[in-house]
Amino acid sequence: MNQRKRIAITGVGMVTPAGNDAPTTWANLQAGRSGLGTIRHFDASGFPVRIGAEIKNFDAAAVINNPKLLKHATRPHRFALAAAEEALTDAGIRPTANDGHRWGFCVGAGMMAMDFSELQAAQKVSAPDGEFHADKLLSDDFPADPVAFSRNQTNSGLALLTRHFGIRGYATAVHTACASGGQALGTALKVLRRGQADYVLAGGFDSMLNPTGLSAFCLLGALSTDNDAPEQASRPFDATRNGFVLGEGAGFLVLENWEAARARGAKIYAEFAGDGNSLSCYRITDSPPNGDGPIQAMRQALADAGMTPDLLDYVNAHGTSTMMNDRSECAALRAVLGDHVGHVAVSSTKSCMGHLISAAGAVEAAVCALAIRDGIAPVNANYHTPDPDCNVNIVRGQSKRMRIRAALSNSLGFGGSNSCLIFRNPEEVQ
Amino acid sequence: MNPQIVFTGLGVVCGAGLKVDGIWDAIRHGQSSIKEITSWDVSRWPLKMAAEVTGVDNRTLVEDRKLHKMISRTDLFGLYAANCAVQQSGLLGHRESLDPAAAVQFSDRSGIYAGSGAANYGCNYDFYPALAAADGDLNKFGGQFSESVNPMWLLRNLPNNVLCHVGIRYNFKGANACVTNHCAGGILALAEAAATLRANEADRAIAVGHDTPCEPESVLHFMRLGLMAAETVRPFDQRRDGTIFGEGAASVVLEKAADAQARGAAIFGEFLGSGCVTEATGVLRLRPDGDGLSRAIELALADAGITPAQVGLVVAHANGTPASDASEANALRHVFGEAMPPVTGFKWAYGHLIAASGIVDVVFALLALRDKIVPGIPTLQTLDPALAPLTVSSAPQTPRSDIALVLCRGFGGLNVAVLVRAHP
Amino acid sequence: MSNENITQEEIMAIYPKVAEMIADALGCDVENVKPDASLINDLGAESIDFLDIIFRLERGFKVKIPRGKIVEQARGALSEAEFESGGVISEAGAARLRVFLSEVPADRFKTPLKSAEIPKLFTTETFCKLVLRQQRAAAEAPPAA
C39-65 in b/e burial notation, b at 16+ Cβ within 10 A? Predict the structure, then answer.
């Protein structure tokens, strides 16, 4: 392997169901306090699934004091703006007119753009009887709102954030379903190593917690139906698990060249040491029972980080709490970690904050950075009944104080895209 | 030292046809596939034109019937184009000739990069019957949607369907991404694929861009924003009045040159470099001075290690909107000054393929280099004097070298430049 | 919910329509959708296809079929703990399944049977019976107020 640029994580920001900023989220994850509950921000009482992992009491205007900007921001965009602002403030550096062109932006962006109220308004005019009529779009009653249009493009979030923060370099948005956030960070790592940017603001944002998003997952039978016990509904790796809990939120990280970060005296959470990226080529929603696909991603990430599995102390698992995903992921972990599997603490923080879909990988990377900094493996909440098919060393009962030399984070998406990221404790960097 | 990256397979489907050579002939002969829209009744619509893919059976695009229920129209195009590129590359036959262990390694080292349009309006219409029945009552909607919305709805509309199904079809399991960056998606997929090979994170990759922007609600919004042309795309012309949608997909297979030569593959050109920047101007605005595009071109030149004088032709974004063409002309003058190579654009021929627009232009830039011709822009009658001097023409021109620069611009102030070279 | 009184005539009466819907869902030829074909093993169905098939049956036969409840119906009066433990079906559970899935040839029931493998047993007839059962349940139910 040729001499690679070393990349540092110097800022983290999160808006999650477990807390509206990184410190609150992290404190709640450590305490195993659930951010799951009955859905409140729309009336889900008639749905087969009425629980979710919502962002609560979030006031975007308190973080981003710019009403005009917020007019152009959808619900998940607002989470993204707040998380990115927190990450930049935390890093103590942000793009300026002079160096904005050396800043990159990589984001895992959710697939759902349109607000449900917009969809309803459009339906009322263009499909009053349920059937779409193109000519009705030409009616003066049709709400052809150009601001809504510009909010709802695939890269609207990218456009909004790069403009707001003055990022003028490489900019991309990726979507590989639940792996999006991880892939966005992986792309950021490559962009920095290639020298296409000196700094990258990287992360993910999503909210499918709306009537259509909830319907779509209900139809697939992918969600836990434990409507009466939302706080226990997400129980990754537990034998009684019965589906994931749909969440929303955003996570962003500031990434920069290691030497530059050191030179400016930045606090460094971790080295972003490796990225692995594979396709399962199996089925679109099913996970390969033997872990094929995730195995290659993890091995690549380890190789990319120049590491052997025995140097890993913590895995933040994808751990959605669906039967198939958790089984497949554990098979992959056992294959990759081999004899060392019993020594690696594994937890899925989705147990406390649900599944943030396109934001999941980014938020969980931020969690890994904090886990390394504080020497704490956060608890896998709601884990009571072991599943023989998930035989890994799960952080059970409470969070575990332990020095973490390196942490691995998995994101495994519908469609079989697998992303694996590795973070190294700065003290381990020679 | 970067390994040399070459193209060993090309595939395109668009309004102009299903075969790369046929489409190329049409471009050279000045034939446009922009016609009156057929996918909905446009008799009352003020704008009626697009370059649709018509008269093609879905099973011609994708043979596997079962797949049809799990994917959408844009995915059919993506899978078709990718298949053309893969078949042409001969990679599958090559893998079959390997011993089993080497074949596994081959698959694990084969990547896929997709640029997906995603987020069409039409997919939401599947919810309309349930919404109409509920008449604003969410409680009712929650109890009834499963009666009318197909359980496959989410899967059908996943932006990464092409990535997934190309993977399953050819068992390519390596590095991958699905870029959902509006118009830049397809060409960034190509650039990322090439960068991945350079960094030795994969040995070969399929890049594919696909999109179906031509739907009533998109046309409506583009029209209201003043981005649509009444009749056709007239790049850089005094009378230009906007763009026209096309639909389709384009795909390329990229390989390390050494590998391609070792297995005796036909080579269609070489990837030299890329540049990508945003102007940080928000979704719709762009800078009149062409700053982003100039910087993207300069980054691509630096990445390729060449000077502006070495560029033999430019396939411009040339989307026909007043603002984009004007700023594009500024960028070209800024980079090339007095010594501008011949400039052309292809959207008059197959419309604006949005997420597939840049990658389809790369395919035909390679053919322009092969045939040493820069096709004219037949819809260009009078160059807008405000854009002069600009080396565009309605008649064919001759490239001044074997290197082409392809430009692609999109919402979000995105600008991407890619440089390719003919293979000797 | 007993199925002993579902007759072969009733099943064969709806079989052609059910077979056609399954063929559409799986993208295969209807001739291959034999009454005793295992949807997973013989016709290549994956888990997502069952959702699609149920959706088509609901619309085609105007019945409501609760999602993911086939196994629950099969369990009948047995509690979850009596039916399976640690992902493996108990003896009582297996006996109950053999009755509920009487259309499935006996040699396809493996011992021990994992609960995850139950869907591999489902045949075209299983879905015919599902429709018939739901039609009866609807007929027996008191009219909605």
Answer: bbeebebbebbbbbbbbbbbeebebeb
Q: Do B67 and C27 touch (CB under 8 A)?
A: yes
Q: Are residues A145 and A167 in the same domain?
A: no
Residues on chain B touching C54 (C-beta within 8 angstroms) = 151
Q: Do B151 and C25 touch (CB under 8 A)?
A: no
- In chain C, residues 83-112 whose CB comes closer than 8 Å to chain A: 86-87
Domain with CATH 3.40.47.10 in chain B: 5-120+157-421
In a domain, A430, yes or no: no
B286: left (phi over 0), alpha (psi -120 to 50) or beta: beta
pLDDT at res. A312: 98
Cβ(A382)–Cβ(A351) below 8 Å:
yes
A100 and A214 in a single domain? The answer is yes
* A114 near B CB under 8 A: yes
Which residues of A does the annotation mark as catalytic?
Answer: 178, 318, 355
What pLDDT is attached to residue A204?
A: 98
Residue A2 lies in a domain: no
Number of domains in chain C: 1
Out of B67, B70, B151, closest to residue C55 by CB: B151
Distance from CA of A336 to the nearest CA of B (A): 16
The type of residue at A82 is A
Taking only the tens place, the pLDDT of each residue in B141-166 is: 999 999 999 999 999 999 999 999 99
The answer on pLDDT for A1 being more than 50 is no
Residues in chain A: 430
Of A126, A150, A174, which residue constitutes the final position of a domain? A150
Q: What is the pLDDT of residue B120?
A: 84
b/e code B5-21 from CB counts within 10 Å (16+ = b): bbbbbbbbbbbbbbebe
Nearest to A286 among C46, C51, C67 (CB): C46
Q: Which residues of A232-250 are buried (b: 16+ CB within 10 A; e: fewer)?
A: bbbbbbbbebbbbbbbbbb
Q: Which of A48, A114, A283 lies at the smallest CB-CB distance from B124?
A: A114
Total domains in the fold of chain A: 2
Q: Residues of chain B with pLDDT > 90: what percent? A: 98
**Residue A1 covered by a domain:** no
- Protein fold of B5-120+157-421: Peroxisomal Thiolase; Chain A, domain 1 (3.40.47)
Alpha carbon of A144: minimum distance to chain B alpha carbons (Å)? 7
Note whether A387 contacts C: Cβ–Cβ < 8 A.
Answer: yes
Q: What is the CATH number of the domain that holds C113?
A: 1.10.1200.10
Q: What is the complex's ipTM, to 2 decimals?
A: 0.97
**Domain-embedded: residue C145:** no
Asked if the model's pLDDT at residue B174 lies above 80, the reply is yes
Q: How far is C9 from chain A (nearest CA, A)?
A: 33
Q: Which of B59, B63, B64, B69 to mutate to test the interface with C (most CBs of C within 10 A)?
A: B69
Domain for residue C72, yes or no?
Answer: yes
Q: Which domain holds residue C120?
A: 8-140
Could C52 and B69 be called an inter-chain contact, meaning their C-beta atoms sit closer than 8 Å? Answer: yes
DSSP B222-274: HHHTT-B-SS---TTBTT---B-BB-EEEEEEEEEHHHHHHTT----EEEEEE
Q: Is C128 exposed, middle or buried (0-12, 13-18, 19+ CB in 10 A)?
A: buried
CB within 8 Å of chain B, chain C residues 48-67 = 48, 51-52, 54-55, 58-59, 67
Stated length of chain C: 145
Percent of chain A surpassing pLDDT 90? 90
Tokens of B372: 């040493």
For residue C92, the tally of other CB atoms under 10 A from its CB is 12
**Cβ–Cβ gap A221/C68 under 8 Å:** yes
Q: What is the tens place of the pLDDT at every residue in A285-336?
A: 778 889 999 999 999 999 999 999 999 999 999 999 999 999 999 999 999 9
Show the domain range for A23: 7-113+153-425
